[in-house]
Amino acid sequence: MSDTTQTGTGVTGARPLVRIERHGEGGHVAELVLDRPEAMNAVSTDMARAIAAVTGEVADDETVRAVVVSSSHDRAFCVGADLKERNRFTDDELRAQRPLARAAYRGVLDLPVPVVAAVDGFALGGGFEIALSCDLIVAGEGATVGLPEVSVGVIPGGGGTQLLTRRVGWSRAASMVFTARRLTAAEAHQLGVVDEVVAAGTARDRALELASTIASHSPVGVRNAKRAMRLGFDTDLGSGLDVEDECWRATAFSGDRAEGVAAFAEKRRPVWPGR
To answer: Could you say which of 24, 27, 125, 126 is catalytic?
Structure first.
């Protein structure tokens, strides 16, 4: 799998804090590389701006069929909020930063295509919330995950209280959040906190493999499947089935459906029009 393009976003005139790398035939897999290694990708104000900008760019790019979120640091995915920066903040500065932080996490969560987190090393606090904002989490055997916010006088504020509870249920999420405990990759997998554990240092490779498989399927179908699952998850069954029907109709009368059926009948690989 080869990179086709590489772009980035960061502080004007400085090294990008988040890079976009495109992979595979057609560049349909976008890898968002967190690239603030000197701080283990701690989410500063500038880092939050970069994540929001990059996810917005990717969300608007209809050629993207799957996304991987990874790290340039071999010992950390992201260690969470930049507490050194926050230690200097006044209350007003902390309030002003809040919308930027929310935009960063929502940017990942709201991506319209499937997103795979590649977690090697530490994914703590806001860093783990970035992973939780993805659809799938692949962790290397040496990974450590957790939401330790109550140990420093705050609560998870990047979606952790909601996303972890939806992922593993109330009691397991409560245990992790209230005790601020950290989990090994094996413990996290056993509890359903992460979806797959691979050899240390190979999470990115496995995430790109999964994303490549996803990107090989109908882009219209995959986007509408994610939309149906996300919109239907927090509603009653009847309403969820109505959401599914709406998404089915948006897919069934698309060019992708026509091409998929024709390719199956002709025993060939489909060439998705993506519309």
So the answer is: 126
Catalytic site residue from 50, 81, 101, 207 = 81
Cβ within 8 Å of residue 137, ≥6 positions away: 116, 117, 119, 131, 193, 194, 195, 196
Topology adopted by domain 219-266: Lyase 2-enoyl-coa Hydratase; Chain  A, domain 2 (1.10.12)
Domain extents for the chain?
3-215, 219-266
pTM score, whole prediction: 0.93
Q: What is the pLDDT of residues 103-157, one digit of tens each?
A: 999 999 999 999 999 999 999 999 999 999 999 999 999 999 999 999 999 999 9
Residue 14: active-site member: no
Known active-site residue 81? yes
**Does residue 149 carry a catalytic annotation?**
yes
Euclidean distance between CA atoms 203 and 62, whole angstroms: 26
Q: Is 158 a catalytic residue?
A: no
**In CATH, what number does 3-215 get?**
3.90.226.10
